[in-house]
Amino acid sequence: MKGHVKVVEFFLKQYPDMSELINREGRNILHVAALSGKAKMVAYMLKRNDLEMLINGKDKKGNTPLHLASMAKHPMVVSNLTWDKRVNLSSLNILNMTAYDIALEFRDIFAFREQLTWLALRYAGARRAPPSVLRKKPQCLKLKMSDVLNEYKDLANTLVVVATLVITVTFAAAFTMPGGYNGSGGVATFLERHMFHLFAICNSTAMCSAITVVALIWAQQRDLGLFDSAFKFAVPMLGLTLTIVSMAFMASNYLVLRNLHWLAYLVLIIGSFFILALSILYFPLCLLSSPQNLIARYTIYFAFYLVVKASWSDADDWKEE
Predict the structure, then answer these.
(1) Are residues 240 and 113 in the same domain?
(2) DSSP state of 176
(3) Which residue in 116, 98, 104 sits closest to 228, CA to CA?
(4) For residue 321, what are the contacts with CB-CB under 8 A and spacing of at least 6?
């Protein structure tokens, strides 16, 4: 529960039979580690072949360690478990719910840890239990419908404001081109330069994609399903918009600084680094399906790990007493 790997290792070395002990809820040591969010402890236990019988063990309510980690919203623990091929992703508890069912039941788009937990299961290809076996679900502590709608609308309004600001900036940039205009003919000074072409394309694309984000006005309707569809469409588009705006900014900076080569290239390097970093962090949140290719899954895991670290969603693993 406290995450002391060396202490557990010492006891198991001296008394191997202790691994078979369970508490009043019928939970073994892997259950407790998963429920407590101790990712390092879980990873240690998964490496030990003598603890293999604990991996899919069930407590009195039929929950495996993966069920409990999903219920407690511990994304790194869930990720560690799903990467182990011995873990049964389709195991059912006493309510005939898989870990993925539990993640969906407890999922809240306003709680980032819950989103990451759900993503970890989705990337592993976890599925819901067949409708024919799904029984009554537990009643989770959720907001009233009116409160949920208000939260949705506040979130939608925030995204619309950001999109509106992007539209305003890109619209203004179209008439205040870098380098100005050549004479009275209204022709851009840098019209023949490749970086200007990149600026014009990025600026136009950013404005058009920001306009599509305004589709979130659908969220003003009292329909959660409609909002969910609009939200799934708008968030990736807004991420794309901000990335393209950054590229347009870099291109315009390069144009006006091109005679001072070291400064122009430094601006490009700084901008490229941050765009790459944000793209890596943002990509896992927009992936719609689980990657089948092993290389792709490793790439997603790396990005997912960075998101968990950046959001401090693995903070429970630090609290060793």
Answers:
(1) no
(2) S
(3) 104
(4) 2
Q: What is the pTM of this model?
A: 0.69
Q: What angle do CA 112, 32, 14 make, to 5 degrees?
A: 140
Identify the domain containing residue 9 by its residue range. 5-123
Q: Are 113 and 309 in contact (CB under 8 A)?
A: no
Query: What pLDDT does residue 241 have?
Result: 87
How high is the pLDDT of residue 62?
93
Dihedral sign for Cα 270, 271, 274, 276, please. negative
Whole-number Å distance between alpha carbons of 128 and 145: 24
CB 59 within 8 A of CB 96: no
Residues 42 and 75 in one domain: yes
- pLDDT by 10-residue block (mean), the chain, 321 residues: 92 91 94 94 93 93 94 92 93 91 70 81 82 55 52 75 87 84 76 89 89 69 67 79 90 89 90 82 62 68 76 68 52
Q: Does 72 share its domain with 173?
A: no
Look at the chain and report how many structural domains it folds into: 2
Alpha helices in the chain (DSSP H): 5-14, 29-36, 39-47, 65-71, 75-83, 99-105, 112-123, 145-175, 194-213, 224-257, 261-286, 294-310
C-alpha span between 170 and 207 (Å, rounded): 6
- Angstrom CA distances, 7 to 13, 142, 315, stand at 10, 38, 21
The answer to whether residue 128 is domain-embedded is: no
